[in-house]
Amino acid sequence: MHKKIYIAGHRGMVGSAIVRNLLAGGLSSDNLLFRTHAELDLTSQAAVRAFFEGEKPDQVYLAAAKVGGIHANNSYPAEFIYQNLMMEANIIHEAWRVGVQKLLFLGSSCIYPKLAPQPMPESALLTGPLEPTNEPYAIAKIAGIKLCESYNRQYGESDGTDFRSVMPTNLYGPGDNYHPENSHVIPALIRRFHEAMVSGDAVVTLWGTGTPLREFLYVDDMAAACIHVMNLDKATFDANTTPMLSHINVGSGKEVTIRELADTIAMVIGFQGGIAFDASKPDGSPRKLMDSSRLNNLGWQPKVGLEEGLRLAYNDFLLHEHASHF
């Protein structure tokens, strides 16, 4: 039978990596369903319903989301909660309505409380207050997890509904956003150090002390994890989750300080100047690490180390340096 797999958000960093990995795994492009935003407004229930009734996919990867850094989350909280809630509610409900049994929802590590234990286990969900700056986005992502769990609880036995969720750590790689104001730390530093190298700057000054610890995962490793979790047989997946705790963390399990990260990016890019830190600026959380032992026990491990991944990311930046969104 010709399997049809819908990747919502196929142009985004994670969605495009899932497409690359599915094709590399032997699937034909004829197996994959895409719609651009211009072709399908995922916040429109009527449009999403018409799409699912017309295509009836066998599997769905829900990688579509409105995303951004601290500045964007602070500036547009209504857009972040509304658009993400609407997209996931429409896709999950309409997937169930047409009989899709396998769906994978992609969340975010920001679902966990600001003061969650480190490393953060899946069981930390809903145990404390969220980080205020991205609370609207986090609540939308928590709602997506609970949508999947609720449809499984109500329709798992009668309809075979099997909707799963994965929570990635900080991702980077091809397709990242290098916008000077709205990007995350790795693409922001790649841009900063590249521009400093081109300009011949003697020093690059970064916010904070450089001491916070962060975990990073190359996006194609994330895509491989998504496909791995999607295709686990139900008995194996159920044995490692519970109906009320069915999401799975995806991380590298390795931490670096922001200073170490900056040093590595400077080396990869070839920046020869100095690196200074402005300790009067905020550091953010001292540590953010995912507990990915559940996924490791299910047979997945990351393959791309940080230095190798940063080289691949920098090559992608150079390819798109002169694109209109830079």
Automatic annotation (TrEMBL):
Keyword Oxidoreductase appears in the UniProt entry: yes
Catalytic activity: GDP-beta-L-fucose + NADP(+) = GDP-4-dehydro-alpha-D-rhamnose + NADPH + H(+)
Domain NAD-dependent epimerase/dehydratase stretches: 5-232
Keyword set, alphabetical order: Isomerase, Multifunctional enzyme, NADP, Oxidoreductase
Residues that bind NADP(+): 9-15, 106-109, 141, 168-171, 184
Superkingdom of source: Bacteria
EC number: 1.1.1.271
SUPFAM superfamilies found in the cross-reference section: NAD(P)-binding Rossmann-fold domains
Residue intervals passing through the bilayer: none
Pathway: Nucleotide-sugar biosynthesis; GDP-L-fucose biosynthesis via de novo pathway; GDP-L-fucose from GDP-alpha-D-mannose: step 2/2
Site (Important for catalytic activity): 108, 110
InterPro entries: Epimerase_deHydtase, GDP_fucose/colitose_synth, NAD(P)-bd_dom_sf
Any single GO BP term: 'de novo' GDP-L-fucose biosynthetic process
Positions annotated as active site in the UniProt record: 137 (proton donor/acceptor)
Function: Catalyzes the two-step NADP-dependent conversion of GDP-4-dehydro-6-deoxy-D-mannose to GDP-fucose, involving an epimerase and a reductase reaction.
Family designation: Belongs to the NAD(P)-dependent epimerase/dehydratase family. Fucose synthase subfamily.
Protein's recorded name: GDP-L-fucose synthase
Source organism: Pelodictyon phaeoclathratiforme (strain DSM 5477 / BU-1)
